[in-house]
Amino acid sequence: MFLTSHRRDHHLANAILFDTPETLSDVFLRQPSEHLAGGQSLFFEGDEARHVFEVTEGSLRVFRIIADGRRVITGFAHEGDVVGVSLRSAYPYSAEAICETRVRRLSRRSFDAATQENELLRNQVFARLCDEMAAAQDQMVLLSSKTAEERLCTFLLKHMKRTLSKQALQPVLDIPMTRLDMGDYLGLTIETVSRMISKLIARGVISPVGRHAIRVNNPSLLAQMAGDGDECEDQRRLVAGGRRH
Amino acid sequence: MFLTSHRRDHHLANAILFDTPETLSDVFLRQPSEHLAGGQSLFFEGDEARHVFEVTEGSLRVFRIIADGRRVITGFAHEGDVVGVSLRSAYPYSAEAICETRVRRLSRRSFDAATQENELLRNQVFARLCDEMAAAQDQMVLLSSKTAEERLCTFLLKHMKRTLSKQALQPVLDIPMTRLDMGDYLGLTIETVSRMISKLIARGVISPVGRHAIRVNNPSLLAQMAGDGDECEDQRRLVAGGRRH
DNA sequence: CGGTCTCTTGAGTTAAATCAAAGGCGGTGG
DNA sequence: CCACCGCCTTTGATTTAACTCAAGAGACCG
User: Is B88 on the interface with A (CB under 8 A)?
Assistant: First the structure.
């Protein structure tokens, strides 16, 4: 389980918060931040789940290796996200730094204690779990019924929304992960990912800015191509007979 | 969000539990059970999330209708499962009875109150959320990297495990859902689902028992065909270079 | 500046989707 | 009780989107 922070507003001086944490991040504030080089593992699937981590800088990929050796990335954790939350004794997935990354570590005991006693924190954990669940369902929709093009556009759009909130209206989007990461996340091969990126570039929707960044020229077209429709509420009640499985 | 019960042991007389619920089911015990005919909707995606439901009999499909009218089933809820748990004001999915089904309804206020004040219940909700999250990740693995055959076998196996626990060693497995339901859950068309079922029958792995039940002749072969390997721990640490996206 | 790794592009293959049609089961009414 | 109708399911033929295989291009590093 990894928990995505939607907003992290530090209203109050951190010093005050050490003893009465108001946000999940506050709980981690006392911990020293640890550095991970790109590609370095934080923990492996099956390891005893002794710690919970907050990402303070950089990004992690969260994945499983399946029977035949293939990798399935179930999500990415970015600044402010918490990874390793679970009730099981072992981590159900591995986590690895995509790029230079910093995390704060907290023992599960401490984390559990903090969230058990503090209703505010508890609700935040619950809220994040719910959001993560919703994200997982979105991903299921993507994997079970979107085309390669729609998957890529959805991915870019999601990362745009995440970055946009902090980087104002800057249209240059950092993509720290490799094509392989994207492929393993989107259920596609690197070749298909590459082809779809080329297609978007050819159509002028995006422009390449080195290998790990793009400029989004036409966000609304990108959104349209992501195939989420307008989430048109009315249509939901009709049991529309659209085909394609 | 819907929560799966792993075990529902009523150690104590229910009467005693009314005031001090020990399990999530106990919270629903006072509520009258409502009947749903097959195909009947419990709630729609986007509806205001006023209630939480416990399935006491039968099964529900939990799904979303996407932009082009297609349906994606994100899960099924069976006896003992709780559906509708979320923090959002609106349900993020629809829920519909697959067959004759009974549910107990609880207002979100009551449910939240009960779980806020009772640590035991709260932990159960948390545990179920974690399990559901793990199931969602399994489903992502299935959708992003399993073949049609593996998907079907995984599906049958999962339902076998669920049913087995209560119906002893009886190898006849009820499949209340239609081929369309299976397809929308597994990311396949009804034709492909049907073909894969025929293939399993031809190979003698299963035998048809009417339309909505099968006999599993060779559970271990079925497990092998599900493609989950032996979850061999050692292989996990090797960054094996298996192909297929 | 050579080596390695990542990415791109092209050509051919394939698993599953689509299109099409027939078969079986269940319900309804004569 | 049987005939008919509608729905779900099965099976077959064809198409297609994405995968696989292959080779070349660009980036990064010692």
Answer: yes
Could you tell me the two tokens for A185? 């996340």
End-to-end CA distance of chain A: 30
Which structural domain range is residue B203 located in? 146-237
Is residue B109 assigned to a domain?
Answer: yes
Specify whether A182 is located in the same domain as A101: no
A245 domain residue, yes or no: no
Cβ contact (<8 Å) for B236 and A65? yes
**Is B232 inside a domain boundary?**
yes
Domain check: are B34 and B135 in the same one? Answer: yes
Name the pTM for this structure.
0.90
Decide which of A124, A142, A160 is a domain's last residue. Answer: A142
Per-residue model confidence as pLDDT tens digits over B142-162: 999 999 999 999 999 999 998
Q: Is the CB of B130 under 7 A from strand D?
A: no
Question: What pLDDT digit, counting tens, does each position of A148-190 carry?
Answer: 999 999 999 999 999 876 655 667 899 999 999 999 999 999 9
CA distance A236 to B96: 13
CA-nearest of B221, B47, B243 to B150 is B221
Q: Has residue B242 been placed in a domain?
A: no
B203 and B214 housed in the same domain: yes
- State how far the Cα of A192 lies from the Cα of B245, in Å rounded to an integer: 9
Whether residue A187 and residue B144 make contact (CB cut-off 8 A), yes or no, is yes
The count of structural domains within chain B is 2
The sign of the torsion formed by the CA atoms of A36, A41, A44, A48 equals negative
Tell me, yes or no, whether A127 and A151 share the same domain.
no
Single out the residue of B13, B15, B14, B93 nearest to residue B53, CA to CA. Answer: B93
- Find which nucleotide's C1' atom is closest to B189's CA: C17
Residue-wise pLDDT for B196-242, tens only, equals 999 999 999 999 998 899 999 999 999 999 998 765 544 444 444 44
Residues contacting B83, CB < 8 A, separation 6+: B1, B2, B3, B42, B52, B53, B55, B60, B62, B77, B95
Contact A209, A197 (CB under 8 A): no
**Shared domain check, A78 and A24:** yes
Give the long-range contacts of residues A113-122, CB within 8 A, separation 24 or more: A114/A21, A114/A27, A116/B119, A118/A21, A119/B116, A120/A22, A121/A21, A121/A23, A121/A24, A121/A27, A122/B122
